[in-house]
Amino acid sequence: MRGPIAPPQVPLAASRADVFADLVQDSVERLERRWPQLADMDFMVLEVPRLDAAPEPWNDEAVPLGGTIPAREGRRARVVVYRRPVEIRTKGRDERAALVHEVVVEQVAELLGLTPETVDPRYGED
Fold first, then answer.
1. Which pTM value belongs to this model?
2. Which helix (DSSP H) or strand (DSSP E) does residue 37 occupy?
3. pLDDT per position as a tens digit, 38-91
4. Residue 116: helix, strand or coil by DSSP?
5. Which of 120, 123, 125 is nearest to 30 (CA)?
6. Distance (Å, rounded) from C-alpha 100 to C-alpha 3?
């Protein structure tokens, strides 16, 4: 018998990529209450950073967890979170959610020209 193990509405059926995208969305929604201008930004999840697109070189010790693409010529600003580097650095869902939120806060702060603590006063608290 072939078919899905669980129906699509059950959390078991969600892929790791879907669960990760939900963590990013949760973080964005948390910040949008304080910063409504985030509605004018796009938030993306990519598997890994591209070597040829990095503005500065990186190595095994400094693989980026996220990045930004400023708005230009009719394109909205973008915040990118790299799924695999974040997953590798975390052990469980709670730890992953915390790191995703930190990455989102840092990238939003960069785009807004603010400090991460201004974007989210609880930034850096465990």
1. 0.84
2. none
3. 999 999 999 999 876 555 555 556 789 999 999 999 999 999 999 999 999 999
4. helix
5. 120
6. 32
| Mean pLDDT, rounded, for 19-40 | 95
- pLDDT, residue 9, reads 65
pLDDT reported for residue 53: 56
What are the structure tokens assigned to 122, written together?
């609880």
Over residues 94-113, the pLDDT tens digits come to 999 999 999 999 999 999 99
- Alpha-carbon dihedral angle through residues 51, 57, 60, 62, given to the nearest 10 degrees: -120
Distance separating alpha carbons of residues 119 and 41, to the nearest angstrom: 15
Three-class DSSP labels, 54-77 = CCCCCCCCCCCCEEEECCECCECE
Whether the CB-CB separation of 50 and 71 falls below 8 Å is answered with no
Cβ atoms within 10 Å of 107's Cβ, excluding its own:
25
By the 8 A CB rule, do 13 and 4 touch? yes
- Phi then psi for residue 92, to 5 deg, are -135, 175
**E-strand spans in the chain?**
41-46, 66-69, 77-82
